[in-house]
Fold these 3 entries.
Entry 1:
Amino acid sequence: MKEVKIETKVQVFDDVNELPENVQNLMKAAAEARDKAYAPYSKFKVGAAILLENNEVITGSNQENASYPSGLCAERTAIYYAGAKYPNTKFLIMALTASSNNQITDKPIPPCGACRQAIAEYEIKQDQPIEIYFMGATGKVAKSNSLANLLPLGFDRSFL
Ligand code: THU
């Protein structure tokens, strides 16, 4: 038996104002999308914005349903729409932000496991990393240079 250590890295910015200007703009688009989320059950609103290589920004928010599992996260709403609209256009940067009625969200809130798996598919498909910035409604912003950093031991097409 041998133990295998897996390390990963994210960068943390103290404030959104420290981000490059284009990312600040992307985060603003994510916040606008977040405020349009349909989240009557969880009262937890998430917004995602994706900068495509054609310079277009695609946004999404979580869409809930009375039959809870039928709802969809913001990240997948955005990424599937972008993939459907531009099947051959690369995703460069994603910005994510979340707010809650139950608490102040001032720490970086990472994408859920299912969304990491979904984003990983597109990163592999385009053979180019997607930068991901994520935050609460305020406070620090975390950045990962690639989705792969957020999903160690991921499952992908190579196993099929
Ligand atoms: N949610 C997202 O939109 N993205 C995530 O990565 C985590 C969770 C949504 C799903 C549900 O509408 C609400 O947040 C509470 O889980």
Entry 2:
Amino acid sequence: MDRKKVIAGNWKMNMTASEGAQLIADLKANCDGSCKCATAPEVMVFPPFTTIAAVQEATKGTPIIVGAQNVHWAANGAFTGEISAKMLVEMGVTHVIIGHSERRQYFGETDETVNQRVKAALAAGLKVILCIGETLEQREKGVTEAIIEKQVRWDLADVTMEQLDNVILAYEPVWAIGTGKTATNEQAQEVHAFVRALIAKIFCPVCAGKIRILYGGSMKPANAAGLLAQPDIDGGLIGGAALKAADFLALIKAAC
Ligand code: PEP
């Protein structure tokens, strides 16, 4: 099945509003013909909440999708520091990252809270990039597939086949995020194929053929082509390399 590739930049806690607008201006200024290829990927950026409005303004008239890095499951209430799906939707946000390993590692997110966030986001009409991935310790113990299966089953519990059309998965081995260590093409493809087969088992074979599974973990211009050439890798969720216009543009071109 033909799946449109995705190049998504997770800006994490980087880029003030003015810096974010400048990064978009640099992307626009340097996007020559080759980054608008016929098979151009969907390009997404996920700035911090306070930078979203400036980036929406800066991306007007471009196909760049502007998303958020997290969402709470409640519609409103006493949840200091959180943002609801309704708030995102009202400001025109269409996509949200959920379950990033940094949220799980540093902010106590569990598969249960990730699942609640996923369900609330989908119910509000948002499209979700759901992150999954094993730690180094888990990989070394040989339990990568068991961990991935647990995350996929739990994080997507009660999600319908119809709703799955609005989910993109991101396989991000925790040991490769921000470390400069990348999974080899073979390591990444192996897990992506496993995830796709799992989606076929849990949902349906057609769902598995349709769902896009991104790789994340130190993807950069030097390793992108090999990863993106794998049959089950449908794009990248990119941290560090998404903060430099030249690198991000090179990744977009690599996905053409
Ligand atoms: C990420 O934040 O999802 C990520 C993959 O980061 P990096 O590309 O910096 O490893």
Entry 3:
Amino acid sequence: MALTGLQIQKLLPKTNCKECGSNTCLAFAMKLAAKKADLAACPYASEEAKRVLGAAAEAPVRGIALGPQKALKLGEETVLYRHERTFVHQTAIAVNVCDTDPPEQTNATLKAIKDYVLERVGEESRVDAVCISQGGENASGFVALAKKAWELTGRPLVLRGKTVDAVRSAAVAVMGSHSILCCPDAESADELWPVAKENEHALAITAPTLDELAAVAERTKQAGFNDLLLSFQTHSPAERFQTATIARRTAIRDNFKPLGYPTLRFVGTVPLSQQFERRGQSPSHAADLETTVQAVTEIAKYGGVVVLPRFDPAELAALMTLRLNIYTDPQKPIQVEPKVYPVGDPTPDSPVFVTTNFSLTYFIVSGEIENSGISAWLVVPECEGMSVLTAWAAGKFSGESIARFCKEVGLADQVRTRKLVIPGYVAQISGELEEGLPGWQVLVGPQEAADLESFIKAKVVA
Ligand code: SF4
């Protein structure tokens, strides 16, 4: 739980010696509370102050790092709602493969997982992990598949064996992958945490209820292992939603450490499917819907890792787009570099358009220009990642600032045309822009990017 400035001040020496760079201990405490200073700047801080402030600085949801470079980060969350500050690490998406699937199908799935990339607003999304499930009784097939998946994809694994021995063997076989070992039941945590520790993996613990799960987490932590994930046992979409919310709320609002871990959830179970079957709908349609509903719930409600039952590029695209929307930091708009972008294969005589450097705006406008079939130059000045109207209202997209940018990048030397198309929403800056760029004619384009194609056909290439 975050401490206030006054609470922190009580822990400081209160001598106002100024050695920390602040005039008083209270001023320094206020900076610490706002995370604008480090306690190390006070040479007289007591061990008690270091202990209490260190614990308070810990995120309520513990951070876990997975993968060969430990590049896949989970947890470290501090808020329940994104608008309170930001979410720190997005839900990792894993795809399941089973040791009883035909080898050619498994190979194709692993290759598809490795190659899949979704590019949207300049961001690339990939499948983060591979879940290896043991379907048969023979652990050797499970272990061999885990090894193959690790070698082929280089992604961290979720090792879901039926027994402690099977998980142990797979954990040893993929040491270095920093994967997740799944406990088959609540009791197996005691046997598997030493395996996870020795082979540098994380451990997903499970139990029938949240109280029992918290007890397993506390026991494992006390025993000496704390790289844990929580795997809830729920039996309906409503219970899934409620359990995730209760656990995260308890961890963040009450600072309850035994539930302060990222989660691991499997989707694609059948209760809703059975309900649909009873209504006469096709089981496969119901199962697909069930999977998607569950995955959306996980992404929207604090999921650490969500395991999809199959590789489906269409479903992945939808889920990754949803994830991008939720986990983008609202305080840091996604933006593209300010510069003059070629769209298609423009020549010095190609038309010139202007828009802001908010990624979504840039990609939509450049996409619409491409759709019109012409090549063009797209001038994108620095607007701090704001959309057209917001940037204009903030004084970042004015006639004067656009003219200044065009001069800085030497636009007049790069193109022969002397016409510039601006967004229709900022028609009022056309006069100021023409004043700033003598010899140029400013055309006012449409308000909506969707109307660019018809505008271009009517006014630009006509
Ligand atoms: Fe107070 Fe420590 Fe700063 Fe001195 S250095 S003013 S004791 S906080």
